[in-house]
Specification:
Number of helices: 6
Keywords: Mitochondrion, Ribonucleoprotein, Ribosomal protein, Transit peptide
Structural class: alpha/beta
Radius of gyration: 38 Å
InterPro entries: Ribosomal_uL1-like, Ribosomal_uL1/biogenesis, Ribosomal_uL1_3-a/b-sand
Subcellular location: Mitochondrion
Shape: flat
Order of helices and strands: HHEEEHEHEHHEE
Main location: mitochondrion
Distance between the termini: 111 Å
Strand content: 5-15%
Family: Belongs to the universal ribosomal protein uL1 family.
Amino acid sequence: ALVPCRRWVFPGLHQRLAAASLSAAQPARLYAAAAKNAKRGSQKAKQEETKKKKGTTRRPLMSKPVDDVYLTWYYKRPSYNVEEAVGMLKKFQELDFTYPKQHVYINVFLDMALQKKKKVDQLASTVLLPYRFTDEMNKVLVFTENEKEAEIARENGAAVVGGVELIKWILEDEIQVDFYVAVPEIVPKLIPLRGKLRRKYPSARRNSLGRDIPKMLQLFREGLEYTVEDERLIKTRIARVSM
């Protein structure tokens, strides 16, 4: 092999060496670019596959099974009117020896569609059912500063009766009841309790503010409270199987 010395001259040596280094670096760059393009291609393919999965529709459900053993998700869920459903509940009780005092629950889906798009606040109310199915009575507090009204409240089963002196005890959680009712005259003095009681704060809209103390006490002592969840769903119990 020839060993170059200082006095030897190779024309164009520097240009050749530079070209050689460029040609050696070029494949690495091409590989990196190809890998990047491949990555983009795989991401695009995944996105398209996800779109296809979202767009896939299940086949229409069949109406009624011909056998008593079947896959439920292949068939439409049966629906019954109220009379049929109640009759089936009683029949199930006879067949599987269900406890006769077991509660019956109901799910009510409300149509809360509005003309303008806005959220419907959760709401709660109390209803007095024609037939009671529990022996428990709710504890009700009556706000009044009239001694005659206080006596009427006690006679009709109020758990606690009093005026503004009760505010401190309620704020300190010394007094805890299920519902609060009041007569109109005392309401301006109950403002400090608004944040504490929230939806249980006496209100004419919820029928917990008025002058007919016996009627209010009957509603909230014996009534069933229900709440609208997720803007349109009511889940509550309405009876016992034996009723």
